[in-house]
Each structure stands twice: as structure tokens, then as C-alpha cells.
């Protein structure tokens, strides 16, 4: 037995009820326009009900629909098709946002109007029989409409919740129906989804054609749908706006009325770049280890060569032309020894011993040891205490100050700014840093000097980071500015 048949049996529906209703129609029909006008006058008097209507033209169209509804109500046939039409009315009420209570009050308005017409036209006994049938059919209509109203309302809330969850996920997700249309999607904040694409459109309109082709999504979607198994494409490369972007794409078949397929796009660009950096760092570490081993092997012969040069030079007369040659050789030996020292400094772990020290005193010591004619400015840095290793911090300041002096070549200004807070800036008004080396400035063996080792900044950053601070190049209108940020101490 169907739901409709069960409902008819429950109210005691009979052929007599059908005859009573058909008898009422000729009485009601002449008054149907008045009933419709009265119905919408009451409805439009309630703000919540009035808000579902777009304009007067829509109200006029609905008035004609209400006349058809009254004709069906009193003429039937009251079969399964009748029941399905009433259910569709309930669904429409959900879609337009009509509160459920107005379905009952609206039925009351229509039924009361028909009852008055029937009692005015028939004898009381006959009128009561017809009105009983009117009551039955009104209750049946309400039951049919509200049954789908609640079901549709629950589905609508579920769709809303699904859409809310999907839209606010921190990853890119598309949910497809059986026809490949997107019924939920994350907000297009990844610069990947087409912001013009609307829910209900095909999935192709949401994704860039280049990604669609790179991942061969047509074939992948067909395979996932046919097998019912998850399909994963671990690495898909997309050239987007001149940059490489890497994605992991996962297709998840779903068996649900609201969702047939879920497409999950996870951007791996940062991960891939981190892998490249890690491989690069690993390569540099190997080079550092090798360099340290070589440095140990070179240092002893350099010491012997240096000592030999001193002995030979000491045995020559002051005006001997060979002394100048030996001096040049000695300079190169000294340069090699400095390179060896820098290599060892970079390769060895930084064994820092931090303590609470006065930042200004550290800066003054750095200026003194560097031998650079640098100015000191204090911006709220007086008395600032930081956690630092005095030896390593002074070494870093000396390196930065001497770099600044070399940059201005005796024709510019070098100065330090302490504060505000646990911050020191080493500035110069020289030519600045070559843009070609900006991205690799703190990597080992990168230098703009003709005789530099390219390890000074790499070692300086290593020492500062070992103390829990940061060393970075800060943008400035002219020259260069290196900013050291330390950990503040009580």
C-alpha cells in the first residue's frame, strides 16, 4: 500500500467524499477570484510571508496557480498523481523560503471561505456533509505538502551545511553530482579555481584547462567512477602565471544523493621547494665537510710555507729585489690561511654560550675591534639587554662593519642603529647589494668582492641563528642595511 493510499484509508476517504467535493465546485467557482484576492490580502499582510515574493507580477502568477489548485482540490481525481503534485508544492515552499506555519494558516483561509459559501448555498445537513469532505481533503493536502516540506527542508539544511563546510576548508575541494556538475566548492582563494564559476556549472569551468590537461582528469574521473576506487595523482605540474605549481590530486568516488565524486587538490609547491632547499642544503653540508677536511690538510703545509718565507726573507738584505716577490707570496699564503679559517668556521657547529649582556656595549666593542670609523645611533636602545654570546656577536658585527666599509670604499658613511628593542642595524650609503645575488646572499661562497671568500655572511647568520636571533638584509632607500634581531633579556 502506498503512502497516499494509507492516508486516504486513515481519514476514511470514500466515493461519497468525492461526490461531495464535486458538488461543492459549482458553488465555489463563481467566488474563486474573491477567495484568491482575500487569501493574498491576508498573506501579504504578514512580513515573513510577504518577503518570499519578488514582485507584484509574481503574485499575479501565483493567484492563477491558486485557482488551479482549488479546482483540483474539489474535482480530483484524488490519485497518486494528485499526491505527487501536492508534494511538489511542499518542495517549492522550501525553495522560496516560506515558513511552514503559513501553509496551515493559508489552508485555514481557503477552507473557511469555502465553508461559508457552502453553508450559504445548501441546507444545513447537506452543508455539514460537504464540509466534512472539505475538511478531509484539506488535511490530506496539508499532510502531503508537509511530508515533503520537512524532507526537503532537511535536505536543504544538509546542502547548506555541506556547502558551508566545503567552502571553508583550508584545501581545494570540489563535490560533483552524477552529471559532473559542481554542487559544492571551496572558496576560490587559492588563485586556482575560476572565481567566475558558479555552483551548478560543470567541473571543467572551475579548473584551469592547463591543469585539466596535465592531470588528464577526463580519463581519471572515468576510471574512478567506473572502478569505485580512489584515484591519486601524486605529482601534477602546472605552469601558472609564469611560475611552477605542483599539486597532488585525489579523486574519491562517493555513493550519496548529494555527492557522486569528490576532487581534492592539495598544493605541494612549498613542499617541493622545501625538498629542493633541503637537497641543496645537504649538498652544501657535504661540501662543507669536504672543505673542512681539506682545510685541515692545507693548514699545516701553509704554516710551514709561511715559516719558510719568514726565514728566507729574514736572510735577505733590505734592498734585495727578491724580498718583494717573497712578500707577495706571503700575502697569498695569508689569504689562503684566512680562507681555511673561514671554511673551518663555517663547517664547525657553533658552540654558543649565551648570557644576558648590554646590547649597546656589545655594539661599541664591535666598532672598536673592526677598526671602522662608524657612527652610533640609539633609538630607545639605551640599557637594552639581550641574550647573546659576546665573542660571536662581536665577530658578526666586525664582519658586517668591514663589509660596509669596503662597500663605501672610503667615500661614504657607515653607521649603526641600536633599537628600538633588541635590534641592531648596520647601514651604509654605498652602491647597495647586486640584485643578482639577493636570493643567495647568505649562502656560502657567494660574494661580490674580488678577493672575498664568500663565507662571511653565511657564518654570521649561522652564529646569530645559533643564539636564537635573526640576520637579514633590510630594504632601504640607498646603500645596504643588515638587521640583527636578538632575544630580549630581562
Describe the structure.
The protein is an alpha+beta fold and 490 residues long. It has 15 helices and 13 strands. It has a five-stranded antiparallel sheet with strand order 2-1-5-4-3, sandwiched between helices. A five-stranded mixed sheet has the order 7-9-10-12-11. A three-stranded antiparallel sheet has the order 6-8-13. The protein is elongated.
Question: What would the principal axes of the Cα set say about the shape?
Answer: elongated
The tally of beta strands, per DSSP, is 13
The separation of the N and C termini measures 83 Å
Percent range for β-strand residues: 5-15%
Major β-sheet strand ordering: 2-1-5-4-3
Main sheet makeup: 5 strands, antiparallel
Q: Could you say which structural class the secondary elements and strand pairing correspond to?
A: alpha+beta
Return Rg in Å.
Answer: 43 Å
How many DSSP H or I helices? 15
Order of helix and strand elements from N to C terminus = HHHHHHHHEEHHEEEHHEHEEHEEHEEE
Amino acid at each position: 500500500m502506498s503512502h497516499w493510499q494509507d492516508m486516504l484509508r486513515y481519514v476514511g476517504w470514500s466515493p461519497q467524499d468525492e461526490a461531495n467535493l464535486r458538488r461543492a465546485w459549482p458553488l465555489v467557482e463563481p467566488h474563486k477570484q474573491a477567495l484568491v484576492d482575500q487569501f493574498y490580502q491576508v498573506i501579504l499582510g504578514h512580513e515573513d510571508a510577504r518577503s518570499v515574493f519578488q514582485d507584484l507580477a509574481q503574485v499575479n502568477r501565483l493567484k492563477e496557480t491558486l485557482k488551479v489548485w482549488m479546482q483540483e482540490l474539489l474535482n480530483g481525481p484524488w490519485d497518486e498523481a494528485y499526491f505527487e503534485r501536492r508534494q511538489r508544492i511542499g518542495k517549492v515552499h522550501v525553495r522560496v523560503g516560506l515558513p511552514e506555519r503559513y501553509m496551515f494558516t493559508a489552508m485555514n483561509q481557503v477552507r473557511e471561505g469555502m465553508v461559508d459559501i457552502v453553508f450559504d448555498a445548501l441546507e444545513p445537513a447537506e452543508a455539514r456533509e460537504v464540509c466534512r469532505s472539505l475538511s478531509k481533503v484539506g488535511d490530506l493536502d496539508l499532510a502531503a505538502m508537509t511530508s515533503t516540506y520537512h524532507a526537503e527542508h532537511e535536505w536543504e539544511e544538509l546542502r547548506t551545511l555541506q556547502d558551508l563546510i566545503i567552502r571553508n576548508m583550508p584545501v581545494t575541494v570540489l563535490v560533483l553530482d552524477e552529471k559532473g556538475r559542481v554542487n559544492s566548492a571551496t572558496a576560490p582563494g587559492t588563485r586556482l579555481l575560476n572565481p567566475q564559476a558558479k555552483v551548478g556549472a560543470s567541473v571543467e569551468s572551475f579548473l584551469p584547462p592547463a591543469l585539466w590537461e596535465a592531470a588528464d582528469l577526463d580519463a581519471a574521473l572515468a576510471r574512478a567512477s567506473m572502478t569505485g576506487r580512489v584515484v591519486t595523482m601524486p605529482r601534477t605540474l602546472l605552469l601558472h602565471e609564469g611560475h611552477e605549481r605542483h599539486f597532488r590530486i585525489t579523486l574519491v568516488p562517493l555513493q550519496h544523493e548529494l555527492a557522486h565524486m569528490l576532487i581534492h587538490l592539495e598544493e605541494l609547491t612549498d613542499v617541493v621547494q622545501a625538498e629542493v632547499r633541503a637537497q641543496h642544503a645537504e649538498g652544501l653540508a657535504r661540501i662543507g665537510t669536504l672543505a673542512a677536511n681539506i682545510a685541515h690538510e692545507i693548514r699545516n703545509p701553509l704554516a710551514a710555507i709561511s715559516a719558510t718565507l719568514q726565514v728566507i726573507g729574514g736572510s735577505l738584505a733590505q734592498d734585495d729585489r727578491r724580498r718583494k716577490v717573497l712578500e707577495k707570496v706571503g700575502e697569498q699564503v695569508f689569504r689562503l690561511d684566512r680562507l681555511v679559517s673561514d671554511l673551518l668556521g663555517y663547517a664547525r657547529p657553533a658552540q654558543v654560550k649565551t648570557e644576558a649582556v648590554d646590547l649597546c656595549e656589545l655594539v661599541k666593542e664591535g666598532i672598536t675591534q673592526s677598526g671602522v670609523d662608524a657612527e652610533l645611533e640609539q633609538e630607545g636602545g639605551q640599557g637594552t639587554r639581550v641574550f647573546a654570546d659576546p665573542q660571536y656577536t662581536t665577530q658578526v658585527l666586525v664582519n658586517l662593519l668591514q663589509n660596509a666599509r669596503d662597500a663605501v670604499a672610503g667615500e661614504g658613511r657607515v653607521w649603526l642603529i641600536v633599537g628600538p628593542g633588541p635590534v641592531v642595524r648596520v647601514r651604509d650609503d654605498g652602491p647597495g647589494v647586486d640584485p643578482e645575488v639577493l636570493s643567495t646572499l647568505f649562502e656560502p661562497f657567494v660574494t661580490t668582492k674580488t678577493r672575498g671568500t664568500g663565507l662571511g655572511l653565511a657564518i654570521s647568520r649561522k652564529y646569530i641563528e645559533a643564539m636564537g636571533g635573526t640576520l637579514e638584509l633590510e630594504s632601504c632607500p640607498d646603500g645596504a642595511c643588515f638587521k640583527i634581531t636578538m632575544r630580549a633579556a630581562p
